[in-house]
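Quick one, tokens below:
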């Protein structure tokens, strides 16, 4: 079992920045990749990006150049730095990790981009 806890989020104006963090605990040695998804009201959950144990990072096209994912293996955390935020980025953001056999989710944190 892996337990994920997000922190950060909140309300920010368009063009602003926000940072999210996710701490993993439990059977973390089985984790193959960590990352973020988001779900806007009335829409399906979508991938934001993830980082593999190898260090390779993949982003959704909609956030490339604006969002940065980083992982601190010593602290078992994955972070999401979001810059130049747009109203379309408003969503609940979920931390996610994938082990050999299971996908785990955090409880989600709200990000609202509005003036």
């Amino acid at each position: 079992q892996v337990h994920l806890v997000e922190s950060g989020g909140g309300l920010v104006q368009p063009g602003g920045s926000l940072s999210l963090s996710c701490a993993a605990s439990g059977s973390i040695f089985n984790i193959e990749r960590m990352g973020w998804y988001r779900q806007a009201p009335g829409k399906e959950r979508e991938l934001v990006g993830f980082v593999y144990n190898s260090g390779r990072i993949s982003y959704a096209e909609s956030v490339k150049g604006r969002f940065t994912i980083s992982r601190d293996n010593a602290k078992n955390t994955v972070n999401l730095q979001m810059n130049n935020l747009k109203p379309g980025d408003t969503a609940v953001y979920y931390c996610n990790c994938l082990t050999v056999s299971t996908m785990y989710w955090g409880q989600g944190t709200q990000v609202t981009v509005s003036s």
